[in-house]
């Protein structure tokens, strides 16, 4: 099971999440604001963080930015707002998932489990011989999870890498929204594909002119098209 840091200035929210987390066998720790969360992460080791955005002293975005300076621990962001700007900002900082309040604690735990399974699965896969994909000025070391744009190493969030490499491994195949969310996010599809669209937008920005290889299939999903 996992050691989870729950960060929220609302004690009732922390208790609710902790109740379900402990029920499933996880160990929990709590922080009431962003500054406390950063200090705990400097001094303790956690498997995953569940962090609210709107908090006193140091908001969730700022806390995430500080934590990312010294740790790549998975982070799920909580927010009472569902604006695209918030999601873009969070994903750009490298968070792994974004959950809008009110939320289902059961679904939240499913997302925690899915992220942890994906994170732990990536280690043995990296031990295989490196497979290189290259087209025009776009180069990807699939096993090392490194992307180069015209010779410069790209800086992507963890989820952008997940999405990009999944599409790359399934290049020239039509990928439905449901399949992408299930395979990349690792949990059942709940009908809201805005998270996927937001990440595709971020990924296209990271790829620059080579975003042309990600083709939108109206009414279906996306395809990484090497003939584009």
Structural overview:
There is one protein chain. The protein is built from eight helices and twelve strands. The protein has 228 residues and is of the alpha/beta class. The strands form three sheets. The chain has a five-stranded parallel beta sheet with strand order 2-1-3-4-5, sandwiched between helices. A four-stranded antiparallel beta sheet has the order 6-7-8-9, with no helix packed on it. Strand 1, helix 1 and strand 2 (27-31) form a beta-alpha-beta unit. Helix 1 crosses helix 5 (105-125), helix 4 packs across helix 8 (194-207) and helix 6 (158-169) packs across helix 8. The longest helix is centred in the middle third of the chain and has 21 residues, at 105-125. It starts with a strand and ends with a strand.
How many beta-strand segments? 12
Structural class: alpha/beta
Tell me the series of helices and strands, N- to C-terminal. Answer: EHEHEHEHEHEEEEHEHHEE
The portion of residues forming beta strands comes to 15-25%
Strand order of the largest sheet: 2-1-3-4-5
The CATH topology of the largest domain is what?
Answer: Rossmann fold
Relative helix content:
40-55%
Radius of gyration: 18 Å
User: CATH superfamily membership of the largest domain, which one?
Assistant: Response regulator
Q: How far is the N terminus from the C terminus?
A: 44 Å
Poorly predicted ranges (pLDDT <50, ≥5 residues)?
Answer: 123-128
* Shape annotation: globular
**Architecture of the largest domain, CATH level 2?**
3-Layer(aba) Sandwich
The total domain count is: 2
What average pLDDT do the residues reach?
87
Tally of DSSP helical segments: 8
> What kind of assembly state do the chains in view correspond to?
single chain
Sheet having the most strands: 5 strands, parallel
CATH class of the largest domain: Alpha Beta
């Amino acid at each position: 099971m996992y050691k989870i840091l729950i960060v929220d200035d609302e004690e009732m929210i922390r208790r609710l999440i902790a109740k379900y987390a402990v029920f499933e066998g996880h160990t929990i720790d709590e922080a009431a604001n962003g500054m406390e969360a950063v200090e705990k992460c400097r001094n303790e080791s956690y498997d995953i963080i569940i962090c609210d955005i709107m908090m006193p002293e140091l908001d969730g975005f700022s806390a995430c930015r500080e934590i990312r300076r010294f740790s790549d621990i998975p982070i799920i962001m909580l927010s009472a707002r569902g604006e695209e700007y918030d999601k873009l900002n969070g994903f750009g900082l490298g968070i792994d998932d974004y959950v809008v309040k009110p939320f289902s604690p059961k679904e939240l735990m499913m997302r925690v489990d899915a992220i942890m399974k994906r994170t732990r699965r990536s280690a043995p896969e990296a031990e295989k011989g490196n497979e290189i994909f290259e087209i025009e000025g776009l180069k990807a070391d699939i096993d090392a999870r490194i992307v180069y744009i015209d010779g410069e190493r790209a800086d992507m969030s963890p989820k952008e890498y997940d999405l990009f490499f999944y599409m790359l491994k399934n290049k020239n195949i039509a990928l439905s929204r449901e399949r992408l969310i299930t395979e990349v996010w690792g949990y059942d599809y709940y009908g809201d594909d805005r998270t996927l669209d937001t990440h595709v937008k971020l990924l296209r920005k990271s790829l620059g002119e080579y975003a042309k290889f990600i083709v939108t299939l109206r009414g279906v999903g996306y395809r990484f098209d090497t003939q584009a």
